[in-house]
Amino acid sequence: MQSLFRPEAIAHATGRLDGAVLLPAPRAAWGVIATLAAALGIAAWIAATATYSRPQSVSGWLTPPDDVARVVAPLPGTVVALLVAEGDQVAAGASLARVAGTDRLGTAASRSGIEDLSGTVQVVAAPIGGRIEALTARVGQSVSHGDTVAVIAADGELMAELLVSPRIAGLVATGQTLPLEYDSLPFGRRAVQEGTVIDVSRTPLAPEEIGRHRTAVGGPVFRVRVRLPDQRVLTEAGSVQLRAGTLVTAVVAGHRRIIFESLFDRTR
Predict the structure, then answer these.
(1) CB 62 within 8 A of CB 245
(2) Is 19 left (phi over 0), alpha (psi -120 to 50) or beta?
(3) Residue 11 covered by a domain
(4) How does pLDDT run across 141-156, given as a tens digit for each residue?
(5) DSSP letter, residue 183
(6) DSSP string, 67-125
């Protein structure tokens, strides 16, 4: 019996669902794909070209050009008079205080006056000219030989002296501007100034070479001196006179690195 349909027609009707199926993508999907591709491209460009730096903090203090002098008691005894006040300007050799020595019985010598106590009362004199930064003794206070009576800052403008580790020293150069934060101002105030680096020591200093501040460091450091824009600083409470010994924190910008390099280093 002859078929009503040609074999070719029957084969086409049987296998009409074979082969790849193409579904048209909506335009919104193409928009999302294009947006994601653009975002990835921008992120790759930023990672390959943008740079960043990690700031480093260093510490120091304010000091006059010739540092400070600590005036000590010349003998054990009792402070019978203070002849200056904090903030006074004094010349080298000026009288700062009188100390009455202790007699052999351990009692304080009479305080009737230096004329009656010849040989038992000594005048404490200023070794340098400058400003009285602190009076650590009070009238009637007992002192031992070598106890600090007063602190004198030498004449001249204060500067910031920073101790910088060898790892950070390469980031500091003469003429560079550094933000300085003072954190030991009266009434707990804090303030910030912009200082200029005027000197960086060429060789590192050992802890024992840093003088009275040697306990502040644990290894070799470079000394960095920074000029202040003003000897007074503005705080919430008003203008404050800066004083020798005020603690300072400076921020040094680190080496600039490409973001891609940093990401690559972390994956190694």
Answers:
(1) yes
(2) left
(3) no
(4) 999 888 989 988 887 7
(5) -
(6) -EEEEE-SSSEEEEEE---TT-EE-TT-EEEEEEEB-TTSPBPP-S-TTTTTTTEEEEE
Helix, strand, coil percentages in the chain from 3-state DSSP, rounded to 5: 20, 35, 45
CA angle 60, 64, 65 (to 5 degrees): 105
State how beta strands 177-182 and 232-235 pair: unpaired
Beta-carbon contacts of residue 250 (< 8 Å; ≥ 6 apart): 57, 58, 59, 60, 160, 162, 178, 179, 180, 181, 195, 226
pLDDT tens per residue across span 87-133 = 888 988 899 999 988 753 344 443 333 333 445 788 999 988 888 88
pTM here is 0.55
**What gap in Å lies between CA 110 and CA 101, rounded to an integer?**
9
The C-alpha angle with vertex 131 and arms to 86 and 206, in degrees rounded to 5, equals: 110
- Integer CA distances (angstroms), 130 to 7, 63, 154, 158, in order: 119, 12, 4, 12
Instruction: Please return the burial class of 147, using the count of CB atoms within 10 Å of its CB with bins 0-12, 13-18 and 19+.
Output: middle
> Is the Cβ–Cβ distance between 235 and 190 less than 8 Å?
yes
Q: Are residues 142 and 172 in the same domain?
A: no
Q: What SS3 class is residue 261?
A: helix
CATH number at residue 132: 2.40.50.100
Closest-CA residue to 123 (of 80, 162, 92, 153): 80
- Total domains in the fold of the chain: 2
DSSP state of 144: -
Instruction: Name the maximum alpha-carbon separation found in the chain.
Output: 157
Position 265 in a domain: no
- Within 10 Å of residue 158's Cβ, how many Cβ atoms? 22
Q: Are residues 175 and 135 in the same domain?
A: no
